Amino acid sequence: MKRRRRVRQIFPLEKRLAQEAERLRQRAKNLPPCRERETLLRQARHDETTANLAAWLLSQGPRAPI
């Protein structure tokens, strides 16, 4: 039977996503306006939105009904 490789994450998901978004924005800043730059910026916005949603779901505050 195969064993799964377990990777213990050091940083929380929100922090990793924020770091990735910052890395993508820095990479996009060095490019001229083009399709690749737009793709990098879109991915950075996606990572930031995901980090915000993850933080919201893990918060102890009141939530809207689903």
Please describe what this structure looks like.
- It is built from 2 helices and no strands.
- The protein is mainly α and 66 residues long.
- The chain has a domain at 13-56.
- The longest helix is centred in the last third of the chain and has 24 residues, at 35-58.
- The termini are far apart.
- 11% of the residues are buried.
Concise summary:
The chain is mainly α. The chain is 62% helix and 0% strand.
Structural class by sheet pairing and helices: mainly alpha
Query: Helical percent range?
Result: 55-70%
Biggest sheet features? none
Q: State the separation between the terminal residues, measured CA to CA.
A: 40 Å
Mean pLDDT: 89
Beta-strand content estimate = under 5%
DSSP helical segment count: 2
Number of distinct beta strands: 0
Low-confidence stretches: none
H and E order: HH
CA gyration radius, whole angstroms: 16 Å
Described by the principal axes of the CA atoms, the overall outline is flat
Protein name: Transposase
Organism: Bradyrhizobium brasilense
Quick tags:
single chain; 66 residues; mainly alpha; 2 helices; 62% helix; Transposase
SSE layout and pairings?
Blueprint: H1 13-29, H2 35-58
Helix pairs in contact: 1-2
